[in-house]
Design brief:
alpha/beta, TIM Barrel, Cyclin A, domain 1, 4-stranded antiparallel sheet, 602 residues, 8-stranded parallel β-barrel, 20 strands, oxaloacetate decarboxylase activity, 20 helices
């Protein structure tokens, strides 16, 4: 049996999330929407995933306003989003009232199709989202996060799909976020799903291993109804198969998409130019890499790990981290590597390698995971590690959100008058710190997006790493570590040279003039290095999230005294000895480095 294949294009969400760190701005989306709306896509993925975070954190755009503008500009095309089940768009589980409110507002503002997944494939974490989508009269797409392990079998995936069908989903998506599918495995899984259920099956596969287009063809031959693609100028590698390529491949066959190939090619030329604007966010780790079939690390996760290792001056240890990730994943019961579990596993592997000892530091998120706070692990976790992490605390076996009290009213009270709408309250709910900062800056009229480096034109002076390409340095000055990115944009022949200089991610445009001497700072005020038994320090650079003790407090050995954050993961810092807090040298928000004395205990 053959049939027309429909297409969801990811150009406005996952394509630039996979290749350009989710940095595409709304101003570069709207001019092409008229043509996108005429293509005839089944849907356009435009929202969710990391776009909400990037809008608020880096672009200083209201993500809700982006959605409304896209809905107005794309009146004839379904708009689709990626929703992390009970996690919504954040990194923790939210109470049911927040989930229902978020879905309702997303529907009102323009989302027609909700692709709903849980990082653990724990279907209990999908129920409330599915109910909310159906209550809003929208399309609920239940999602299988595809991965491979001793416990991930076709029978297990089919069982999950049947449970989601019983919950009322309208279609099933196979979400291959890491590019682990192979062509024949894809055909087998799709055939099994189509045989078991009367629902449409959609295949979403990243091309990290270079085989995604073959996977999609095998899926189609075995009954798949829809494929996810990306406009070719932002396709392939850690993105998706090119739309034009798949449309051309199926053209004139019984599976013909019926899409206008010439029009899509025009759109591709537009995004070819747009991509250049975001050249500073390109990574060398977004191309085809078959190592994913061994280490199972999604491409976006690899590029993040690369940046984190650069910040530590340890990029040469990437292979060690990639080798450690499957080991941590096995210890944790083989979770699929997708947000937030990819960050949880990747960060713990990162700590294991850089600390030189496995699980010397265990992140708070790993502790919560091992306690069952993210849901049921797919396989058996390492019980020794669990006890090391949570001690005598109980492991929960209920749906994690069952333990959460309604919190929407509390969040509404916390953000107060800064929130001008219920959407603003939900922005704060997703990301309390950066959400509040965004709303404060909006109130003050000081919202300023991060600087985009000029597109290399061939007329400027070449930067040290090549014309227009940032050269990155990790510099230690008097015990302080800085990451410095320098991009040259000067004009040949001038006595001055203009550069963009970014220090720890804060960009400035500066002008360098020849000087005979540079005098560094005195280093006054820097923290001393730990030497006494009661000196509390960290093993990783990061930020202080919370200080749990004050001067004069009595503490026990092993008691948590600080919480630090690095790479979006929180870690407790414990007292090395029992005693009395003699001095506290840090406050919430401070940047700290390894070996510095943060608290003194005597």
């Amino acid at each position: 049996m053959t049939k027309k294949i429909t297409v969801t294009d990811t150009i406005l969400r996952d394509a630039h999330q996979s290749l350009l760190a989710t940095r595409m701005r709304t101003e570069d989306m709207l001019p092409i929407c008229d043509k996108l709306d005429k293509v005839g896509y089944w849907s356009l993925e435009v929202w969710g995933g990391a776009t909400f975070d990037a809008c608020v954190r880096f672009l200083k755009e209201d993500p809700w306003e982006r959605l409304r503008k896209l809905k107005a500009a794309l009146p004839n095309t379904r708009l689709q989003m990626l929703l992390r089940g009970q996690n919504l768009l954040g990194y923790r589980h939210y109470s049911d009232d927040v989930v229902r409110a978020f879905v309702a507002k997303a529907a009102v503002n323009g989302i027609d199709v909700f692709r709903i997944f849980d990082a653990m494939n724990d279907v209990r974490n999908l129920r409330v989202s599915i109910e909310a989508v159906k209550a809003a009269g929208k399309h609920a797409q239940g999602t299988i996060c595809y991965t491979t392990s001793p416990v991930h079998t076709i029978d297990a995936f089919v069982t999950q799909a049947k449970v989601m069908a019983d919950m009322g989903v309208d279609s099933i998506a196979i979400k291959d976020m890491a590019g682990l599918l192979t062509p024949y495995a894809t055909g087998e899984l799709v055939a099994a799903l189509k045989d078991a259920l009367p629902l449409e099956v959609v295949v979403h596969s990243h091309d990290t291993a270079g085989v995604a287009s073959m996977c999609q063809l095998k899926a189609i031959e075995n009954g798949a109804d829809r494929i996810d693609t990306a406009i070719s100028s932002m396709a392939w590698g850690t993105s998706h198969p090119g739309t034009e390529s798949m449309v051309a491949a199926l053209r004139g066959t019984p599976y013909d998409t019926g899409l206008d190939l010439e029009l899509i090619q025009e759109i591709g030329l537009y995004f070819y130019a747009v991509r250049k604007k975001y050249h500073q966010f390109e990574s060398e780790f977004t191309g085809v890499d078959t190592r994913v079939q061994v280490n199972q690390v999604p491409g976006g996760m690899i590029s993040n790990l690369a940046n984190q290792l650069k910040e530590q001056g340890a990029l040469n240890r990437m292979d060690e981290v990639l080798a450690e990730i499957p080991k941590v994943r096995a210890d944790l019961g083989y979770p699929p590597l997708v947000t937030p579990t990819s960050q949880i596993v990747g960060t713990q592997a990162f700590f294991n390698v850089l600390a030189g000892e496995r699980y010397k530091t265990i992140t708070n998120e790993v502790k919560l995971y091992l306690q069952g706070r993210y849901g049921r692990a797919p396989g058996q976790v390492d019980e020794k590690l669990r006890r090391q992490a949570i001690g005598s605390e109980d492991v929960i076996d209920v749906r994690p959100a069952d333990l959460l009290k309604p919190e929407l009213a509390k969040l509404r009270g916390e953000i107060g008058a800064l929130a001008k709408s219920e959407e603003d309250v939900l922005t704060y709910a997703m990301f309390p710190d950066i959400g509040r900062k965004f709303l404060e800056e909006r109130e003050a009229g000081t919202l300023t997006p991060e600087t985009l480096l000029p597109i290399p034109s061939g007329n400027g002076v070449a930067a040290p790493g090549g014309e227009g390409v940032p050269t990155e340095f990790v510099i230690d000055v008097h015990g302080e570590t800085y990451r410095v990115d320098i991009t040259g944009v000067g004009i040949k022949g001038e006595g001055k040279r203009h550069f963009y200089l970014s220090i720890d991610g804060m960009p400035e445009e500066v002008v360098f003039e020849p000087l005979n001497e540079f005098v560094g700072g005195s280093g006054a005020g820097k923290r001393k290095q730990a030497s006494a038994p009661g000196d509390v320090s960290t093993t990783m650079p990061g930020n202080i999230v919370d200080v749990l003790v004050k001067e004069g407090d009595a503490v026990k050995a092993g008691q948590a005294v600080l919480i630090t954050e690095a790479m979006k993961m929180e870690t407790e810092v414990q007292a090395p000895i029992a005693g009395t807090v003699k001095a506290v040298h840090v406050a919430k928000g401070d940047r700290v480095n390894p070996g510095e004395v943060l608290i003194e205990i005597a």
